[in-house]
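Incident log, structure service

09:12 report received: a user says their structure output differs between two submissions of the same chain.
09:20 pulled the input from the user's history:
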Amino acid sequence: MEVPLHRTRVFAHAPIRAAVAAALLAPLAACSTGSPQTAPDASRTGKPDARPVTVTVTPEGRQAAPGLPVTVTASHGRLTSVTVTDADGRRLSGKVAADGGTWTSDRKAAPGTAYTVAAVTRTEGGTAATTRASFTTAEADKVNKVDWRPGTATTVGVAQPISLVFDNPVRNRAEVEKQLEVTTSDGTEGSWGWIRDWSGRDRVDWRPKSYWKPGTKVTLDAELNGTDSGADGGWFVRDYTTTFTIGARQIVEVDLDRHRLALVRDGETVRSIPVSGGTPGGDKRSWRGTAVLMAKEGTINMNSETVGLGDAYDKMVDYSMRLTWSGMYAHAAPWNAPYFGSANRSSGCIGMSDADAAWFYGQVRPGDPFEITGEETKGVVDPGNGFGAWNVPWTEWRQKSALR
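09:34 re-ran on a clean worker, output below:
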């Protein structure tokens, strides 16, 4: 049976800094000159002191444009260090150029954020001074948010992709993708690919060239704060991060022609289970190809009207394991007992006995691949219908990156 699932967004709203503290808005110029120390008397030293250093900071003002790097420029001297912090004390890292003339932040200024700048300079004559400045970026007129998987500190199967779904359109895909860094413990080769999610929203997934190696540790750092999505998309106003570990190599082989399911762990068949798949000849057929276990949902209500099958069923179903957003599951289906191992008579799902479903439910984990074969199916699982990226050849998948 097929039942759709509403997504549960797994993000937390981060505050957008709209104002600065009174002390921050005190008369500190966005473009200012430091207060140099008193110059030595030329009559005593025998040589004149250099001119004071002039420091310029951009952006500037109280409604500065976000999405630009912070730059600090020094004239008539050198920058020795620059510190840029927001109202919460978080720093923007950056580098001073080799000639000491400029400092540029590694990241862009975020919307609705107040920044303070402290630039330490030295004149040509050796006099040190500190220049302080402040600016505040304009609020975002529209904010883009992210729903991402898998969750942090989880252990997942060998087919689990990293998946980001965006609330609003992403036109600046290359700029967004540049901010997404995947680090693995064993240098796993992989690529981002932009696809359309089943919900109709923009989505980008990172998948390895082949299934993950068990034990691999993976970290995603999505440093999106201050990145513009482009037309109609709005700004990102926070960063996202997740870490997860790859579990045992488990592959679920589903042969709909033989009406059997096999759990294969580390190359050995652990158990073979008789099943009944989707009924041939119409909308009740199952999908084929590689589907990835998205979630173990336990006992849920399945209603045929939600998947366009009229009033064929409305019942509580045990040991439900979601395979697609369109509603294909593996689950217990005792009402189909006469057909297990002999015929496909379900409404699209992979059904099995209560006992087999209970055992199987306890063995699998999200991220395990279901490799489904069969003649009477309604097609291959689409990349955006669950985690169907494995049905796209590797060379074609890499072409879906905005940085190809």
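09:41 both user submissions now match this output. Likely a transient worker issue. Closing.
09:42 reviewer note: Residues 1-46 have pLDDT under 50 and may be disordered. The radius of gyration is 29 Å.
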